[in-house]
Specification:
The protein is of the alpha+beta class and about 140 residues long. It is about 25% helix and about 50% strand. Strands 1, 2, 3, 4, 5, 6 and 7 form a 7-stranded mixed sheet that branches. A hairpin with a 2-residue loop joins β1 and β2. α2 runs antiparallel to α3. About 30% of the residues are buried.
C-alpha cells in the first residue's frame, strides 16, 4: 500500500458570551460527528492562513489568530481513489478570537455549526486528540 503525508490546519475559534468562553464546533455532513473546523493546507499557504480559511469556510466566521495551541498527528487509510493509500496526517491547531460572521453561513461540507461552552465542546467532540486541543485551549482562556 502506498503511503502519503498530508498537512492540515484548523482552529479553536472562541467568543465570550454572558461571561463564559464558547467555541465553534462543526458537525460533518454524512458522518454526523462533532469536530473542530480544519482542512488541508493548500500549496503556497501557511498553516495559519489555512486555519483562518478553514474556520471561515466550515464555521462561517472570521477570526484573528491568538496563538498556536498544538499539532497532532495520526494515521488512516484513504479509500477514495482507485487504490487505498495509508496517510500520515498532521494537523496544526490555533486559538482564534471570533471577529465577525454567522455560524449559519457555513459551507456544504458541514451539516451544522454551534457555539458550545468549553466543557460542552470537550464532551461533544468525536476525537480524543481534538478533545486534548480544547483542553489546552481552556488553559489559555481561563
Amino acid at each position: 500500500m502506498k503511503t502519503s503525508e498530508r498537512i492540515s490546519a484548523g482552529g479553536v475559534a472562541f467568543r465570550n458570551s454572558q461571561g463564559r468562553s464558547e467555541v465553534a464546533i462543526i458537525q460533518t455532513s454524512g458522518e454526523g460527528r462533532w469536530q473542530l473546523p480544519k482542512g488541508i493546507v493548500d500549496p503556497g499557504e501557511t498553516p495559519e492562513q489555512a486555519a483562518l480559511r478553514e474556520v471561515r469556510e466550515e464555521a462561517g466566521i472570521d477570526c484573528e489568530l491568538v496563538e498556536k495551541i498544538d499539532s497532532i498527528d495520526y494515521w488512516y487509510v484513504d479509500r477514495w481513489g482507485s487504490e487505498p493509500v495509508r496517510v500520515h496526517k498532521y494537523v496544526h491547531f490555533f486559538l482564534m478570537k471570533y471577529v465577525s460572521g454567522d455560524i449559519a453561513d457555513h459551507d456544504h461540507e458541514v451539516e451544522q455549526v454551534r457555539w458550545a461552552g468549553l466543557d460542552e465542546a470537550y464532551e461533544a467532540l468525536a476525537f480524543a486528540d481534538e478533545k486534548s486541543v480544547v483542553k489546552k485551549a481552556k488553559n489559555f482562556l481561563t
